[in-house]
Amino acid sequence: MSTLATLAWRFTLLSFVAVGGVTSVLPEVHRVVVDVHHWLTDAQFTQLFAISQAAPGPNMLLVTLIGWQVAGLPGALVATAAMCAPCCTLSYFVARVWQRFRGAPWRRAVEAGVAPITVALVLATGWVLMKGATTGWPAYAISIVTAGLVLSTRINPLWLFVAAALLGLAGVV
Amino acid sequence: MTAPALPPSDASPRVSLGDLYRGFFGAGARGFGGTLPWARRMLVEERRWLTPQEFTDVFSLCNFLPGPNVVNVSIVVGARFQGVRGSLVAFAGLLTLPLIAILTLAVLYDRFGQLPGIDAVLRGVGAAAAGLISATGIRMAAPLAGMPRALVFLLITFVAIAILRWPLIPVLLALAPLSVLAAAWAQRR
């Protein structure tokens, strides 16, 4: 199968299950892109994630960056469209019926059942990225200090990125 | 296809396709570190297309549906005012500038990503980004702390995906129905 077709069906499938956004399917994107197809190395993957976080816009754009790395501009466009089209279509139609069931017991059960799985996927994303980013204990320290500051202060994460960039430039990691 | 996703109430403002494009373009253009707060600001405070309660309803749905939540917000809000065309225009507005920015960064990464300085900077930022996501996950987990049922499913999912690296879709197909059933059972008692 051509690379573009592989990109298209992989991201189309993921689009349907990306509850909580691209962040929650990121471990799967990593598995497919790094482990299965060897399109990127572990370190490249984490670097692209860093770029997508530092850029404006939804962090879904990581998918655009991966598409670009794998197959240039066509890859970027195919990956982006594959990631957006299914979930957008679904949103459009589900929005029309969902409001009608506000407060219905089955709707609350679905929400309560999906929540822990979504949270687990976000935590798995942190784990996978931390392992990809690490070059030893200083990198773990940056991850842990960042997490601690984000949880305990109201600091804008962009400042933490700037500090981490400077630490990187200084040769700490 | 053309029926609005959420029928606007009588008090809803009239929002044209051009308004939708400009509103979401602005939200996307300002969205450093997450677009959603800017989308809310634009929709509720600046342009007053939605009341705070309407925004919360739209958001809880979009957060629950698969896909990037702010992209889903653009689809649902666009549909509410202008049907399918509204959805497409709002979506295009949201992504115009971020797509240009990310493709520019992609080109720069191709050319300069291997330079020692850039490589070192990205290693630092990558570690920080991993920390940011972990913090988000921890914050999302906090409301589940007193619920053993939820924590069991959280732990099983985390081990299957992060440690064992099993494929996501079979894991979800197995765990999501069980988790929903367990939640339904817990509600009944």
Roughly how many Å apart are the termini of chain A?
39 Å
**Largest sheet of chain A, described in full?**
none
Mean pLDDT of chain A: 88
Distance N to C terminus of chain B: 41 Å
The profile of the biggest β sheet of chain B is: none
Give the helices and strands of chain A as they follow along the chain: HHHHHHH
Strand content bin of chain A = under 5%
**Helix content range of chain A:** over 70%
Identify the overall geometry of chain A: globular
Residue-averaged pLDDT of chain B, rounded?
86
Which two chains touch over the largest interface? A-B, 109 and 95 residues
Q: Unreliable stretches of chain B, pLDDT < 50, 5 or more residues?
A: none
- Low-confidence blocks of residues of chain A: none
Query: Number of DSSP helices of chain B?
Result: 7
Task: Report on this structure.
The complex is a heterodimer of chains A (173) and B (189). Chain A contains seven helices and no strands. Chain A is mainly alpha-helical and 173 residues long. The model of chain A has no long low-confidence stretch (mean pLDDT 88). By secondary structure, chain B is mainly alpha-helical. Chain B contains seven helices and no strands. Chain B is flat, with a radius of gyration of 20 Å. The model of chain B has no long low-confidence stretch (mean pLDDT 86).
